[in-house]
Amino acid sequence: MSSAQAEVRTGGHGAIAPLLVGLNLCIMGVALFGLALLPAAGARTVIVIPRPFGQDAATIVAQAQGFMLRGGIAGALLARGDAPDFVRRLYANGALMVLDGKALDGCASGKS
Predict the structure, then answer these.
(1) Segments of 1-112 assigned E as strands
(2) Where in the chain are the domains?
């Protein structure tokens, strides 16, 4: 079989198909990892990431009636709020993203 016949048989996408499969797997992995970081309903300790050209995270947390536990990189911070709708309030006050902060809660509390 000639290479032209092989190209017709594979649709001419022989080298691209594995690349697309790999790209799809990477995208699914990132999406699943991101979902694992989303806070559970009623989360109290969260990581707040502000919008690039919006209010800073400390202002967003204060407006959502929470308090800052620890600062972070790129304007993000670890915050805590006692209201059951704290995450919703953060988004309503301008947070770009709110992630689960359980893993960092012990670091901010000063416990050993």
Answers:
(1) 45-50, 66-71, 77-81, 95-100
(2) 3-37, 45-109
Rounded CA gap, 49 and 97, in Å?
5
36-79 residue pLDDT tens: 566 767 778 898 999 888 899 999 999 999 999 888 888 889 99
How far separated are the first and last CA of the chain, in Å rounded? Answer: 69
- Local structure of 67: helix, strand or coil: strand
Question: CB–CB of 81/51 below 8 Å?
Answer: no
pTM for the predicted model, two decimal places: 0.62
Query: What per-residue string of b and e applies to 48-63 under the rule 16 or more CB within 10 Å gives b?
Result: bbbeeeebebbebbee
